Amino acid sequence: MKKQPANFPEAARQRGVTLIELIIFMVIVGVAMTGIISSINFNVRHSADPVVKKQALAIAEALLEEIELMPFTICDPDDPNVTTATTAAGCTGGG
């Protein structure tokens, strides 16, 4: 083993993290984590419930299907000539 010369000051100095650096690092990470967690909490609290979204989508799809299945007519749907009229003149006006 080689001995370090006494006039070589870096050999005696240890390299590592001081307690102050460790505390500063912990404070910075703590502040960052607080910001991230608070933003996630805000998003969770203000987001719509997925079940409610699915129910609204099911209702909208049911209404759209009901509209699509209705026959297209020139006349009022309550008109007695609704099935036979081919022009607007063939309608009786709903009376």
Task: Give the structure's gist in a few sentences.
This protein has 95 residues and is mainly alpha-helical. The chain has helices at residues 9-12, 19-46, 50-69. 55% of the residues lie in helices and 0% in strands.
Q: Which structural class is indicated by helix and strand composition?
A: mainly alpha
**What is the H-and-E element order?**
HHH
Sum up the overall morphology in one term.
rod-shaped
Overall average pLDDT:
83
- The stretches of 5 or more residues where confidence is low (pLDDT under 50) are none
Cα separation of the termini:
115 Å
Strand content range: under 5%
Question: Number of DSSP strands?
Answer: 0
Integer tally of domains: 1
Alpha-carbon Rg, integer? 39 Å
Largest sheet properties = none
Number of helices: 3
Helix coverage percent:
40-55%
Q: What secondary-structure arrangement, pairings included, does this model have?
A:
Elements: H1 9-12, H2 19-46, H3 50-69
Summary tags:
95 residues; mainly alpha
Account of the 3D structure:
With about 100 residues, the protein is mainly alpha-helical. The chain has one domain (about 15-80). About 55% of the residues lie in helices and about 0% in strands. The protein has helices at about 10, 20-45, 50-70. The chain is rod-shaped and about 115 Å long. About 0% of the residues are buried.
